[in-house]
Amino acid sequence: MSIQYERSTEWRNHAACKDTDPNIMVPPKNAADKRAQAKAICATCTVQEPCLAYAIATDSIGIWAGTTGDDRRRRGGVARVAKPRRRPPLAPINHGTVGGNLAHRRRDEMPVCQPCKDAWNADRAARRAAGAA
């Protein structure tokens, strides 16, 4: 069963539990009677699918769509930590230039390749000569 999470929570207006005491829907672990009562309310609900998707996506506590947090974890339905975004591929280095030398340094590619190092040293020498003249 594939469940899609919708950011809209308009479905809550149609939930069977919308006017229910929150203490029933978020019972303590040792309160089996309240848990059963909450699940009975969920059994009559018409918006269980978006409710379950919301509970999984937000890793919510309590009874959602007739499931406890443990039920959702057992089903493998807990929200996973998002994978880190992949960086876009790095632009190629223009070797033999001052910019190439700087690109190596920004990427922590040490030591810098010889053509880029030579370009850097030539640029420094030219700047020194221009400053001395």
Summarize the structure.
Helices cover 46% and strands 0% of the residues. With 133 residues, the chain is mainly alpha-helical.
Q: Mind sketching the topology for me?
A:
Layout: H1 22-25, H2 32-43, H3 48-58, H4 69-74, H5 98-106, H6 114-132
Helix pairs in contact: 5-6
Structure description:
The model has no long low-confidence stretch (mean pLDDT 84). Helix content is 46%, strand content 0%. The chain has helices spanning 22-25, 32-43, 48-58, 69-74, 98-106, 114-132. Helix 5 (98-106) packs across helix 6 (114-132). The chain is mainly α. It folds into two domains: 10-74, no CATH class; 98-132, no CATH class. The chain has six helices and no strands. The longest helix is centred in the C-terminal third of the chain and has 19 residues, at 114-132.
Short descriptors:
2 domains; mainly alpha; rod-shaped; 133 residues; 46% helix
Count of individual beta strands: 0
| Chain-averaged pLDDT | 84
- Kindly state the percentage of residues in helix: 40-55%
Indicate the low-confidence ranges by residue numbers: none
Domains, number: 2
Gross geometry:
rod-shaped
Euclidean distance between termini CA atoms: 77 Å
Residues in β-strands, percent? under 5%
Query: Topology as H/E string?
Result: HHHHHH
